[in-house]
Amino acid sequence: MSDEDATLRVMVWNVHGLRAGVGRVASVIKCHTPDLVLVNECGWRRQLDALGAEVGMSVVAGKMPPLRTPWARNAVLAGPWLLPEAYRVVRLTPDPPPLAWRPRATQPRGALLVKIVTPEAVMTVASVHLGLRPGERRNHTDLLLAAFDEVWTPVLVGGDLNERPDEKTVDRIARRFRDTWPAAAEAAPDARTEPGATRGDKPGAHIGEGLTYPSEAPQARIDYLFASEEFDVQRAKVIDDAGVRAASDHLPLVVDLRLSAGRD
Length: 264
Hints:
This protein is an alpha+beta fold. The chain has six helices and twelve strands.
């Protein structure tokens, strides 16, 4: 968080199970200095803890399921001034029996909801990874939105939704929480933020479609950050460079926000 403008920087990134190595992912995170990282496919706990240590952030993640159970696990990394006080794992699909084989398209999915205490507020941050099939995503969204009925506000929801902006699941979530990519464009429609921009740059939106997947030749915007009405969106950008492409099959989304001045 910047002392000068009280901006909260959030990165949303599917890190592909940290297959490319902790060092490559850590290098990207350190370069762009987020206060929160909402991680999908976060890999083994030992790797995840190593990542947190390397970037100087605390790690929140649900317990690893049985080894024979595939799970696209989520995590939240929080900067030193943010206090993760409690968390809840919302299982969006049931675990199969321990020895059952499950095709990739129907792997169990989930959401990690974390209560974060900041100097300004208590908020809920959710790292989410939805399924590959439209039918299961609809069911996942029912459970996900129900989970927000009794949480601390303000709320940030981010992750790999495996769906483009004009599809039904994204539309349902966007009806409840604001999609930060178009919101950033509305905030400063004529501004441009270059991929290497830092917090000192003027607020603005990265002009483009926000494509995040696949990293080698992005064709779809499937990674999102949604924010409740208490947040003002300042700037959004997708990071695309050789280091990022070497680190994961997704490009990270980085969004700068502020709590609204008129909030009680």
